[in-house]
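Board notes (copied after class):
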Amino acid sequence: MKLANFLFTFLLQVCFLWNCPVDLFFVLDTSESVALRVKPFGELVAQVKTFTNQFIDKLTDRYYRCDRNLVWNAGALHYSDEVVLIKGLDRMPAGRDDLKSRVSAVDYIGKGTYTDCAIKRGIEELLIRGSHQKENKYLIVVTDGHPLEGYKEPCGGLEDAANEAKHLGIKVFSIAISPDHLEPRLSVIATDNNYRRNFTATSLVQSPVDTESTIETIIDMIVSIPLLFPAIAPGPLGPPGDPGYEVSK
């Protein structure tokens, strides 16, 4: 039995050695300022869900470098004055249809906006599953940035949440829900200016935006960044089924 367990662990490590996992977690704002911004009410939330599912469709295994495959793990939550987990990190493309189905089924909460709590929950989800390399982990925060002032943030505030991600080496992309987003707060969320740019998830007839280019640019940025490769080393791999250690199919 001990020999069988050793061989299983060794083979799992060898297979994983040729994969470079990237963990991506979506943090979606479905608060009142988003849901009731334009008529028909809920239209911007519907666009955010469409944007997220289009993004998920792009998460396909690809040749990376040094004969390795870049593989994706993805999950999502949505929030208002509460945080609701849509799905924890799961291996793409195997878990794609289920994740997309759950995103499509989201109904907006339409109350206050606790973005700080949502970001910290996203950080937690990235840390408890997926790759052991924190530098290969990303948050995709889709929000309008409201409110600016006069509203209690119960989880330490937006800047504290953003600093926690930076301290842990997690990169945060900040994606606007337009119109009337608050750029200063979106800039606080982003790791730096490169992770903010003019990324947008919504588009209105009177002010059309190419949201597809946002998706393509973000994926290109991730793929072009030198990722940390896992190495065979002694020690536990984590629980069976951990998506960071699944063999590419």
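Comment from the instructor: Helices lie at 2-17, 32-35, 43-57, 96-104, 115-128, 158-168, 183-189, 211-224. The beta strands are 19-29, 62-63, 69-79, 83-91, 137-143, 171-176.
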